[in-house]
User: Which sequence fits this backbone?
């Protein structure tokens, strides 16, 4: 049984990833921490409770809410990005789920990360599918926090410089560049982050028929998910045939690395300047071609960049059908 902590900013693709992990019989969700990103953390934590309630797990999986602030400089631009709507679920409110907000832990997300890392030392797999603020704070509270992780899988950054919110930057890293930079700068050599980038998710899409995701959902849970996820522009393919679900892709890689078709080990860092490339992930590909080249170790970390995913294998994974089964 793989013990997993998900740090997320729900966000419909986060919700899809959570549903997949809930479906997996070999995954134990020991906690879910919420960060600001696709919506405010105070709203995102409600969305987490909704998907847990739909699965009758709201009293079994602890949920922690993080700070509403980025580490250094607030970026007002993200508040104008309509990708997931103001409520994180494409502003769909019909047939909603009643939740019990008293179930939200009084403990903050960063403290929860520190405590759970110690409780499950050497066993805890971290899936980070939002801005990295909570992780950065946890690694500041306990500098040895990341040394206790079994693995870290991140959805964020770019493989070849094709951004989504800007020409160069992907949303999660752009939202809090200093947090992403801090995480990479503090990563221990014993844990190599696995990074599923924006371009990788864009070219490795889910097929609706394989994940049972279509307009004709029969259960309340299936209809609830579909009504919210169909609102994303990237989901509006002809006949809803294919879906770019970034966080779902990262979750699939985390549960089974056999789905990775190609990857590379590179030194990575995040640009924190205020120019055109703010939030961009910098990859030092020289480390592959010329191992003698010295990268500035103070800012860079060795990471495994996922370039290609075998979607045939992904579509065959247990629990992959997030729609009606």
Assistant:
């Amino acid at each position: 049984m793989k013990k997993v902590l998900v740090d997320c900013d729900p966000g419909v693709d986060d919700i899809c990833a959570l549903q997949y992990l809930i479906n997996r019989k070999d995954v134990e969700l020991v906690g879910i921490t919420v960060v600001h990103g696709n919506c405010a953390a105070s709203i995102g934590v409600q969305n987490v409770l909704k998907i847990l309630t739909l699965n009758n797990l709201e009293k079994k999986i602890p949920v922690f809410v993080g700070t509403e602030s980025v580490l250094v400089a607030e970026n007002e631009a993200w508040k104008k990005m309509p990708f997931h709507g103001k409520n994180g679920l494409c502003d769909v409110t019909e047939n909603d789920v009643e939740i019990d907000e008293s179930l939200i832990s009084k403990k903050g997300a960063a403290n929860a990360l520190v405590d759970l890392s110690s409780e499950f030392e050497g066993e805890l797999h971290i899936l980070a599918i939002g801005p990295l603020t909570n992780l950065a704070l946890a690694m500041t509270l306990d500098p040895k926090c990341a040394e206790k992780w079994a693995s870290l899988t991140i959805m964020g950054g770019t493989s070849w410089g094709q951004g989504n919110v800007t020409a160069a930057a992907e949303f999660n890293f752009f939202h809090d560049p200093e947090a992403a930079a801090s995480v990479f700068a503090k990563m221990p050599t014993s844990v190599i982050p696995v990074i599923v980038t924006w371009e990788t998710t864009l070219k490795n899409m889910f097929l609706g028929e394989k994940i049972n995701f279509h307009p004709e959902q029969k259960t309340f849970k299936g209809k609830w998910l579909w009504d919210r996820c169909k609102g994303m522009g990237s989901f509006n393919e002809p006949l809803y045939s294919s879906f770019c679900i970034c966080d779902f892709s990262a979750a699939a890689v985390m549960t089974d690395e056999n789905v990775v078709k190609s990857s590379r080990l590179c030194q990575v860092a995040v640009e924190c300047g205020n120019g055109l490339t703010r939030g961009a992930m910098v990859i030092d590909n020289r480390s592959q071609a010329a191992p003698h080249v010295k990268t500035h170790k103070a800012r860079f970390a060795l990471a495994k960049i996922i370039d290609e995913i075998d979607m045939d294998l992904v579509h065959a994974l247990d629990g992959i059908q997030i729609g009606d089964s």
Remarks:
- The chain has a mean pLDDT of 91.
- The chain has one domain: 2-315.
- The chain has eleven helices and eleven strands.
- The two ends are 23 Å apart (CA to CA).
